[in-house]
């Protein structure tokens, strides 16, 4: 199983000293998959676990049923809380088997994790007790969010892709999508409004580089670069919670 090693350094007036290191299972999606809060380090990782496939076979002559067990590696996801000595003090394991993390964000005592294979679950995780992190709610909607951006204490914005059937039993990216999630009820997160971005296949650097985001909270504006049908530009929307929509502002 792939491991991630975390090193903790003391930086003091130009001197750098290694204080300690720790190790956890799995790998990080990006820098937003780790966060320090009140002396604790929280990390969301994708891991590989053993999954058993049980196949029953019936003997045509005797009628006896035998069971064959085959083991294969599949993905799952963990959330670990480490103390100042980088020792694990709390953990959630095997979250969303056979999926992997596409985005994560930590805001105070809460964590948000998006996993994906064919349907996008947004998990809301209570981290107020570092020794006992707890999944409070989950929202499953088509597509997935590859970037999460906090809007206020009870809302978070997801930017990602709609998906469609690829004709082989799986899914492939379609046009982009931006969603506003209401997380005021931790056990019942909701997508309260969204906007489809572009027609057909679209692509944006925001899917892997958060610095591509334009965001002005004072004016409630949000935007990002976009490529579609051989054209490149930027789209900007006005966030209107009162009317429940991302309003077209400019291209």
Provide structural commentary.
With 251 residues, the chain is mainly beta.
Please name the defining characteristics of this protein.
251 residues; five-stranded antiparallel sheet; 20 strands; mainly beta
Short structural description:
Helix content is 0%, strand content 69%. By secondary structure, the protein is mainly β.
Helix content: under 10%
Average predicted local confidence, pLDDT: 91
The termini sit apart by 45 Å
The radius of gyration is: 21 Å
List the helices and strands and how they pair.
Layout: E1 3-12, E2 15-25, E3 27-28, E4 34-37, E5 40-58, E6 65-82, E7 88-95, E8 100-107, E9 110-116, E10 119-126, E11 134-142, E12 144-152, E13 155-165, E14 171-182, E15 190-197, E16 202-203, E17 214-216, E18 221-228, E19 231-240, E20 245-250
Antiparallel strand pairs: 1-2, 3-5, 4-5, 5-6, 6-7, 8-9, 9-10, 10-11, 12-13, 13-14, 14-15, 16-18, 17-18, 18-19, 19-20
